[in-house]
Every structure is written in C-alpha cells, then in structure tokens.
Amino acid sequence: MSGGHGSRAFGASTRLATREQTADELYGEPENFLEVEVRNPQTRGVGRRMFTDYEIVCRTNIPVFKFKTSAVRRRYSDFEWFRDMLERESSRVNIPPLPGKVFTNRFADEVIESRREGLERFLQIVAGHPLLQTGSKVLVAFIQDPNFDKETYSM
Questions:
Q1: What angle do CA 59, 25, 58 make, to 5 degrees?
Q2: How far is CA 12 from CA 3, 4, 19, in A?
Q3: Rounded CA gap, 51 and 76, in Å?
Q4: Residues 74, 53: contact at Cβ < 8 Å?
Q5: What is the edge-to-edge ordering of all strands in the sheet holding 51-60?
Q6: pLDDT digit string (tens) for 29-60?
Q7: Burial degree of 111 (CB within 10 A; 0-12, 13-18, 19+)
Q8: In this structure, which of 3, 84, 98, 135 has its CB flanked by the most CB atoms within 10 Å?
Q9: Are the C-beta atoms of 75 and 52 separated by less than 8 Å?
C-alpha cells in the first residue's frame, strides 16, 4: 500500500486495542498450567529385593486432575505398567519411550539420576497431552492417587 495514510490508521487502531495488563494477568496463575516433577529417588529393600522409587509431584489447575497439588511415589516397574496401559488405551497417541532398563550398576547415583530425568520427561509429555488427559482412565490416578493399585485398572 502506498502513502502513509494506511499505516497511520493501522497504528491508531492498535493503540486503541492495547491496555495495561492487571497485576493478576501478569503474575497470576496461567489459565491452564501443569507442572509434573519426578524427584527424590529412594532405594529400598535388600539384596535381590532392592528397588528405587521416585516421588511424582504434580501442580496443576486443569480440572481433569483431582488435586491442585499432589505427591506420590512410584517405582520403575509401575512406570512400565503405566506406559503399557497408555498404549493399550490410546491408539491415536504416540506414547514416548521410558528410559531403558539398566542391568548393571542400577543403584549407582548417576544411573538413578539419569533414569529420574527420563521418567520426568516421559511424564511431562504424557500428562500434558490433551487426548490422554481426557481419554485415559489411568493417567490421573497414576500421577495423583496415593492408593493407586494396578489391579484396579488391569484389562
């Protein structure tokens, strides 16, 4: 468009549309937020019965989740079961892989930390997926229910 007239009108209309954001808009909770953290790994048991479990901390305001904040503990085998259930429930969603099984030094700090990071990435992806939030029977329970029991959900 030639001439300055058109751009002046555009500038004027955008100036009218802007307004100062309120403190609540700037610093308040976003409309929908979901934070999932896997932390605080603890190794339990002795000998062949040793295992490591992880704390899953969830903070959200998405209505499908039953609690705004929650903390539960899960072990790697629980994550394996959970991933398998998600795959069975939803053929339309590509479920990401878990960090691989470790057969040597699985209780070494760096192995546990690497696994923790992988489990956290996995949970952040699946928990944030809208189709899984609305379509999965196990997602919210796995992340939030302290009395979670695999038997309740087994197909």
A1: 5
A2: 16, 12, 13
A3: 8
A4: yes
A5: 34-44, 51-60, 69-75
A6: 557 889 999 999 999 999 889 999 999 999 99
A7: middle
A8: 98
A9: yes
136 token code pair: 């999965």
pLDDT in tens, 104-120: 888 899 999 999 999 99
CB 46 within 8 Å of CB 24 = no
Residue 96 CA to residue 115 CA, distance in Å, equals 14
Tokens of 78: 């629980």
| pTM confidence score | 0.78
Bridge partner list, 38? 56
Of 89, 136, 97, which Cα lies nearest the Cα of 119? 97
